[in-house]
UniProtKB/TrEMBL annotation, chains A, B:
Gene3D superfamilies: Medium-chain alcohol dehydrogenases, catalytic domain, NAD(P)-binding Rossmann-like Domain. Keywords: Metal-binding, Oxidoreductase, Zinc. Residues 175-301 form the Alcohol dehydrogenase-like C-terminal domain. Its cofactor is Zn(2+). Pfam families: ADH_N (PF08240), ADH_zinc_N (PF00107). This is Alcohol dehydrogenase. Residues 25-124 form the Alcohol dehydrogenase-like N-terminal domain. InterPro entries: ADH-like_C, ADH-like_N, ADH_Zn_CS, GroES-like_sf, NAD(P)-bd_dom_sf. Belongs to the zinc-containing alcohol dehydrogenase family. It comes from Microbispora siamensis.
Length: 340, 340
């Protein structure tokens, strides 16, 4: 089959890869309906994360089950399924508490390479959630978004305790940040401040439910959020970047007693304990347990209550994956979908 | 009046200080029934925090109202009252959300010097809570404990979400840590693990409701907590020290999705964002909003449901304050009460 392989920073190729097959009796193999490039794929693309030799890429997936192992009972060939970037058993104590990305048997999907025609999914019963029926093509982008960016933005909004009566600020205008805006709206937030200086992304944020746009960053961004909130700061701030600047911006824009939900994969972040102590904020985040939210998100998409697929503002065939990476790296695209 | 003044690290004296008087119409002046030395007073005593010239000491207080300003309506002369180490209006939006130590009008009590015969309390209506009647002498230590260490331990346990079905670990066996054990018990925790290697403190922890004692520290302490919790870590960990080692111990002893409540005043703590991200813990803490809990704590003490005064294992007259500091510095005493 064809699949995306990163050879070095900036060097992404579509190559012949071995077809995946059932290895463990709990595996499934799916045929991808579409796949996509993640903001986190840009860390190695930009040389910030190391690339240790040719690496299959991609961890976002939705598609049709082709084959299941002998112990798989909850999904069957022919079903359309969505999973997350960590396979999880969904039965251990950590999964039952809603932290499937820290499942005691978790397996990272990235190395299996979801930017491809087919994918092996370990722990299929725990990992995959089927849609009521096979969806029409128009819903595929939204289901694919549920696999990571929607679920991650949603977790960020939940971790920040977005809800009725709350003012929510979102740091980061990538797909995750934009979908955190959508999540905050769904969760009933009163006011949603998107921090973005890119006009097309501002527009999408407003479509997803933002009530205010703040273009300032860093200390100026914090000052602007305080201005908008009677000097107190937001109740809830979602951090969807992962840098030192964005984390500090999020913490400092949150009022005492407020909540920071951070979902940007941390890169070089060091938090000063004294500042954190006196900030009085709640801090929660990490790899989003997307699996926790999949049944709800699938329902919302199936019933066309949300349209997260709008974040894909570039759609290319799998063979043009290199162009997709380049467009995202240069911020010409929010998120690129790859047709398989 | 007589009061404690710190001149330099290790140099604590009882001197004549000017009698406090009403400055603002929202002030009260109280006659202290007893006062005490706080673990946080040891930071300057040990030269870790700077001492900028002679400084009145003490921020824990309970006593009889002597005089009130013209705008004070909720307390009156003759009442026995308890307050916290930050004066707060208890009416601003931050106070109403339960974060009185971040009140927009807060005033730090420390510089006013509660280790003395009398004390001016700003924002008396918001800060002070009266007991139903003037209590007997036997209850004074417990009410004094409510002023800081009990309220701080309580906030730590609440921030760590101690409650029914939970395994709670407490890092730190000072007065705050020991009272976090008491709080976890009152909040209904199933299992309470006190981390202590000091026999008298272990004994007090068990009296307050600890079910297990762990003597190991650092990585060994973390390993022992994991052993006791099926490899997962505790649901809730209270950090009551404030050092880098104790913070890491707390974070690492917490299971994914669990809660760290940190109340040790941070000194030299730097948290690695990547470790925090993948730990999946909730982090909350800071200067405990003791005022939030005072009505409940006063009720528990008044009705003799709890006896937090037991943490005072050394009782000296105010004039011997220097001995009290020395005993706590040398860990010969958990906490020293000063009779006024």
């Amino acid at each position: 089959m064809r699949g995306v392989v990163m050879h070095a920073p900036g060097d992404v190729r579509v190559e012949q890869r071995e077809d995946p097959r059932i290895v463990a009796p709990t595996d499934a193999v799916i045929r991808l309906s579409a796949t996509c490039v993640c903001g986190s794929d840009l860390w190695p693309y930009r040389g910030i994360d190391a690339v240790g030799g040719p690496s299959p890429m991609g961890h976002e997936y939705a598609g049709i089950v082709e084959e299941v192992g002998s112990e798989v009972t909850s999904v069957r060939p022919g079903q359309f399924v969505v999973g997350s970037f960590f396979a999880s058993d969904n039965t251990c104590e950590i999964c039952r508490a809603g932290y499937q990305t820290s499942c005691i048997r978790r397996e990272l999907m990235g190395p299996l390479g979801a930017q491809a025609e087919r994918l092996r999914v370990p722990l299929a019963d725990g990992t995959l959630v089927a849609t009521p029926e096979v969806p029409g093509d128009d819903l595929i982008p939204s289901f694919l978004a549920a696999s990571d960016v929607l679920g991650t933005g949603w977790f960020g909004a939940v971790a920040a305790q977005a809800g009725p009566g709350k003012t929510v600020a979102v740091v980061g205008d990538g797909a995750v940040g934009l979908l955190a805006v959508l999540a905050a709206r769904q969760l009933g937030a009163e006011r949603i401040i998107a921090m973005s200086r890119h006009e097309p992304r501002q527009k999408l944020a407003l479509e997803f439910g933002a009530t205010d746009i703040v273009t300032e960053r860093g200390d100026d961004g914090v000052a602007r959020i305080k201005e908008l909130t009677g000097g107190l700061g937001a109740h809830s701030v979602v951090e969807a970047v992962g840098t030192q600047e964005s984390m500090l911006q999020a913490i400092r824009a949150t009022r005492p007693g407020g909540h920071v939900g951070y979902v940007g994969v941390a890169h070089g972040v060091r938090l000063d304990g004294t500042e954190l102590f006196f900030s009085h904020v709640h801090l929660h985040g990490g790899p989003a347990p997307v699996r926790r939210y999949l049944p709800e998100l699938i329902d919302l998409i199936w019933n066309r209550r949300i349209d997260p697929g709008k974040v894909f503002d570039l759609r290319l065939p799998l063979d043009q994956a290199a162009d997709a990476y380049k467009a995202m790296d240069e911020r010409r695209a929010v998120k690129a979908l790859l047709r398989v």
